[in-house]
Amino acid sequence: MIQNMTEAALAARENAYAPYSGFFVGAALRGESGRIYTGCNVENASYSMGICAERSAVFQALASGEKRFRTLAVSGGRTNEDAKLIPCVPCGACLQVLSEFCSPDFPILLADGVHKLSDFLPVQFNLSSLSQFGCHRDER
Ligand code: THU
User: Fold this and answer.
1) Residue ranges with strand state E in the chain
2) How many angstroms separate the CA atoms of 123 and 9, rounded?
3) Residue 137 domain-assigned?
């Protein structure tokens, strides 16, 4: 299972579009249905318009109607060899997006093994943070 997920992330990494950083990332997100959604980083000449592999996978899953997830695998690096050996920790923005849909113990598979979301993001701004301020949420 872990191997399948990592292989899916490495395969998605092959599609990364990263001519500016030269850093290629792939992500594989397993939904509660068992289906795997993949994403890769896509950069842009207008630098800030780029998107990370992890958010790309989350949005792909959401657009397919899945919003509960079992696990995420991430593989990143300049070379395929690096991506297999060196852990690529999701950036803060991606961790925040993941925290919208995943619990703190959500497993994240990196090159050095299994971590959990709360290892990287111990606290998050979420729906309960908003309710503390009396803000209401759309139940969709
Ligand atoms: N990147 C990801 O896709 N995921 C990460 O976890 C870290 C960074 C991308 C963003 C950018 O295209 C490139 O890697 C260098 O930061």
Assistant:
1) 24-31, 36-40, 69-77, 107-110, 113-116
2) 26
3) no
- How many domains does the structure of the chain reveal? 1
Ligand 1 site residues, Cβ closer than 6 angstroms: 18, 21, 23, 25, 41, 43, 50, 52-54, 74, 76, 88, 90-91, 94
CATH code, 8 = 3.40.140.10
140 belongs to a structural domain: no
pLDDT for 126: 87
Grade residue 92 by pLDDT with cuts at 50, 70 and 90.
very high
Predicted local confidence at residue 136, as pLDDT: 66
Domain with 106 in it: 2-132
Q: What is the DSSP letter of 49?
A: G
Residues 64-88 have pLDDT tens digits of 999 999 999 999 999 999 999 999 9
**Atom 8 of ligand 1, nearest CA residue:** 52
